[in-house]
Task: structure prediction
Amino acid sequence: MRVAFLGPPGAGKGTQARELAREWGVPHVATGDLLREALAAATPLGLEAKRYMDQGALVPDEVIIGATAERLREADAARGFILDGFPRTVAQAEALARLLAEQGQKLDAVIFFEVFEPELLRRLTGRRVCRGCGATFHVTFAPPRSAGVCDRCGGELYQREDDSEATVLNRLQVFARQTAPLLDHYRRQRLLTTVRGEGSIESVRGEVREATGALQ
Ligand code: ADP
Ligand code: AMP
Result:
């Protein structure tokens, strides 16, 4: 089960990937989480990534490709993975294909979460993330039982700096310009399945399960 979740910021990739990775027994490899963890630990990768992330720009391909390749070479990814937020450019997709080919593997499916801008803005501006475990909530659509506190681990919930409205608009443009070309790229390879990402969290999960059913 080697699957990539593709979609604009706020489409629900992380929400679905976290649950499904547990269900399928594969790691959830979210490059945004990887970079935020690197930043929290003040590693050279984190510090380099910060100036791009703050603006809502993409981190340079060579930086993110190196970091993701290192993560995918870890033992837990040998049986499969859900990639969330990678690849985001055609160059990243090509690097991923090469990396997997070196290991005699390939991507099994790419799931595109289709959600339109008004809903993305509502989701991103209301998103809250746990500082402890990275779980994601929404002030209205997926509120925690107790405001500001993570249901899973009791950690503090915070609003990502790049979820401010100005940065969100830039991130949506970056998606349209740099990431949307991947739709055709994967359609040509017959790997792409589109799910209607605007439904409830449960209904979207059902669609992803259906789209990946043959792989499990
Ligand atoms: P992504 O990983 O694609 O950027 P997230 O999974 O973090 O997106 O979801 C963005 C926000 O939208 C979060 O606050 C999350 O709780 C909320 N959300 C996710 N899926 C849905 C859904 N199907 N309906 C309503 N809100 C959702
Ligand atoms: P995300 O958590 O997926 O919304 O990612 C947050 C930010 O991390 C993005 O706005 C980028 O700056 C950076 N990032 C994450 N994944 C990638 C990637 N595959 N390529 C380039 N930058 C990335």
Summary: The first strand starts at residue 2 and ends at 6. The radius of gyration is 16 Å. Residues 9, 31-32, 35, 52-53, 56-59, 64, 85-86, 88, 92, 162, 171 surround adenosine monophosphate (ligand 2) (CB under 6 Å).
